[in-house]
Amino acid sequence: MFWRCLYRHALPVAALIYMVNRDFFSEDFRAIKQLGLSRSPEEFRQEVEAFRYLNRTRAGILRGRLKIRVSGHRLARLSQEMFPRI
Fold first, then answer.
1. Number of helical (H) and strand (E) elements in the chain, helices listed first
2. Mean pLDDT score across all residues of the chain
């Protein structure tokens, strides 16, 4: 899920960072794990918003300006897969 939700422009740089320092993406992995534990669309949305807030407030140059991270928008689209409308 991590690689699928990365910004496309970030893939080459993210692969290098991942090989050297996996902890750089700890927030991304935490968010993906929490989303997987979600039991409702509302809970899922809250987790995505928490991830987006974290990126706005604590992102450095790589995570913030260059967006070498998981896309909040791509994460939000996963809710359609996890909670299909019946």
1. 5, 0
2. 90
Are residues 61 and 4 in contact, defined by beta-carbon separation less than 8 angstroms?
Answer: no
Q: Which of 2, 79, 77 is nearest to 33 (CA)?
A: 2
Region for 67 from its dihedrals, namely left if φ exceeds 0, alpha if ψ lies in -120 to 50, beta otherwise: left
Burial 2-37 (b: 16+ CB within 10 A, else e): eeebbbeebeeebeebeeeeeebbebbeebbebbee
CA gap 15, 53 in Å, rounded: 24
Instruction: Report pTM.
Output: 0.85
DSSP state, 40?
A: S
